[in-house]
Specification:
Elements (H helix, E strand, L loop, with lengths): L8 H11 L1 E4 L5 H17 L4 E3 L10 E5 L1 H6 L7 H7 L2 H11 L4 E10 L10 E3 L6 E7 L10 E3 L3 H9 L9 E3 H11 L6 H15 L16 E5 L4 E3 L7 E9 L1 H7 L6 H21 L1
Antiparallel strand pairs: 1-9, 2-3, 3-4, 4-11, 5-8, 6-9, 6-11, 7-10
Helix pairs in contact: 1-5, 6-7
Bound molecules: 2-oxoglutaric acid and fe (ii) ion (FE2).
Length: 291
């Protein structure tokens, strides 16, 4: 893993382009980390209406997964609940990288506080995200130290380029999350890798990992509290096995303007929101009459 603390955003963006991932070790100060962690716990306890709790949250577990929906915070005037989120989403460093990586007019689709405290087989199986073939990049903030033992995130460097190649195929049957096996299937079906030795090498690595999943743990992104991880989620990734202890991560998802326009009209300014709704209606009508 390429670890470096250079803060030139063009260098960082180029590294994400090349490797799919960039890590800023222990980047945020302790005071910020504590504030974000407390904010997540408060939200998990009170569940204000602009949050969605998903999955493992429940009385029998200490874990929680709280998703703050940015457009709803705005609508329901909830900013006083989430000052840390407000600060973090305004970090000039990350905004600048988003501008470079996604082009202007991107949006944030989710801000999630995920605390995992129960032993698991895997927090997330290895997969790639597919956002209608549009770009997405995610920012993770480690709120405690993460390593092989407590479910740290895994990312296979350069596999985002295979994910991108898939976005250019006519394959229609892709979900928001697709397994490693599915990636290999679609590549086998449509993509000729024989002329690109780097891609071929990455494909072989993925085949190897599919046969021997333990090998994915060579790609754990370990880091101390405050570590910030930026990655393109079209590459193969997933949280590891939580054997003991706990893992606490806050993450936010940047999506490009095309995805925002098509799928998240609530986040658009009023005029664009109307246009997006009209375009959606037109798409539905067209599908209806074509059927
Ligand atoms: O939290 C993790 O380790 C993985 C989550 C994930 O797959 C994602 O954010 O796309
Ligand atoms: Fe994912």
């Amino acid at each position: 893993m390429h670890l470096s603390s250079t803060l030139d955003t063009s260098v960082i963006t180029a590294a994400v382009e090349r490797e799919g991932i960039y890590v800023l070790p222990e980047f945020l100060p302790t005071s910020d980390i504590a504030a974000i962690a407390d904010e997540g716990r408060r939200l998990a306890e009170h569940r204000p209406p602009f949050t969605r709790a998903i999955g493992e949250t429940g009385s029998s577990t200490r874990s929680f997964f709280i998703n703050v929906v940015p457009a709803r915070v705005q609508r329901e005037n909830g900013w006083s609940w989430v000052p840390s989120y407000d600060r973090v989403r305004s970090m000039p460093l990350v905004k600048d990288i988003a501008d470079r990586y996604l082009g202007r007019n991107w949006g944030i689709s989710n801000f999630i506080y995920h605390f995992a405290a129960e032993p698991s087989t895997e927090l997330f199986h290895l997969h790639f995200d597919h956002f209608d073939s549009q770009r997405c990049f995610k920012v993770y903030i480690y709120l405690n130290a993460a390593n092989r033992g407590n479910g740290a995130f895994r990312y296979i460097p350069r596999s985002h380029r295979l994910g991108r190649a898939i976005c250019e195929t006519p394959e229609k049957n892709l979900k928001l999350e697709n397994s490693l096996t599915r990636m290999l299937e679609v590549l086998d079906r449509y993509v000729d890798l024989s002329r690109d030795s780097e891609l071929k090498e990455c494909y072989e690595l993925l085949r190897n990992i599919e046969r021997n999943p333990e090998k994915s743990y060579d790609y754990v992104v370990a880091g101390g509290p405050g570590t910030v991880v930026l990655f393109d989620s079209v590459g193969i990734h997933g949280g590891g096995q939580l054997m003991s202890g706990e893992r606490y991560i806050a993450r936010y998802h940047f999506v490009d303007s095309g995805f925002l326009f098509r799928n998240l009209p609530d986040q658009l300014p009023p005029l664009k929101r109307q246009l997006s709704r009209a375009a959606g209606l037109y798409r539905r009508l067209r599908t209806h009459f074509a059927a």
